[in-house]
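Exam revision sheet. Question 4 asks you to relate a sequence to its structure. Input first:
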Amino acid sequence: MNKNNVYILEDRSILYVNGENVSEFLQNLISNDIFKVTETNSCFASLLTPQGKYLYDFIIIKHKNGYFLDCEKKNIEGLLKQLNLYKLRSKVEILNLSNEFVVASISKEKFLELSGSKDKAGHTVNFYHDPIFLDPRTSELGARLIINLEKLYLSLKKLKLKSSNIDEYYQHSHNLGIPPKETQQLQNKIFGIECNFDKLNGIDFKKGCYVGQENTARINLKDKLNKRLFAINVVEGTFNDGDTITFEKKEIGKIVINNKFSYAILKFKEKIFNYDSEFVCGNAKIKIIKPIWL
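Answer key, structure tokens:
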């Protein structure tokens, strides 16, 4: 990522959750510890099914007396509905602020020029009362700015940033093995821990109960995790959604996100699993991208 570039993440949306019981409400639902989130620290978390399958993931940022949830735009209405289902008598308010706030990504280098910044995933500073934070999944993904749409271009001017092609950000995220969009294709298909949330600072194994905690903890404690989500590159050819991936006629996984930046769920403990190998998928030959955090 170029230090002076900014990427307007139009595929992201913002929920604002606040109220008297907001911290306890979120703590009982999400895979991470809400009490890690402060004025100077943001966190990555997910909402799982009771069986521990993936539903939604989001970044949580402290804002006034509540929290911003930075979520993929295609999932925002579903997440809002799911949170309202769990709300019951909790004294919380959940607002969709997608028409008021925008999310932008900048480089880690630019973030570290800001006053009070630290090279620590999730570290958060204020820029003219707006939060800028290093991505809590990995600092190599850069930093994010959440800002009122009316202030966006003035702030970008103050930061001396120029808007750039969003595909540059997508490619960088893909190289890091972190899907930035189309995550609805994962819903109810794979476990949250198989989405690498344990490696991306998205699961707190020491906190109390949350939705999906029992299976997530069992998989981790009993070393039952043998599949993970990986970014893949196409060497040649094409494949379709759900196509199986094979090596020497042995099935090793399948495609779960099929777009320009595709992902597969793969049996990474198989002896034949090798990052240097070419695998067969549909009419294509593919290679697996090894993430730096694994």
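Marking note for examiners. The first strand starts at residue 5 and ends at 8.
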